[in-house]
Fold this sequence. Notes:
It is built from three helices and five strands; from the N terminus they run E-E-E-E-H-E-H-H. The chain is α+β, with helices and mostly antiparallel strands. The protein has one domain (3-79).
Amino acid sequence: MAKIVAAQIVTSNHLIKGDSIYLTRSGTWSRCAADAVLLLDATDAAAHLAQANRQTDIHVGAYLADASHFRESFRAVGPSNYFHGKQAG
């Protein structure tokens, strides 16, 4: 079991809506980062990413991300070029 330095999650963008989505332990997708499976092992992380990459009818651009990375919280809010959408709420 190869440990990784930081906990990771699998994230992507919903194919139709473009929202940030996160792979859950059951292999489904959630728009809530708290639902994401937390990956602490490099082999497990690679297996979950491979699982995600077989679901191209749901999402586009899956990748592993540091679970606490600023980019993930920022990206989940949406574009920052003007006040609209999720940012308006």
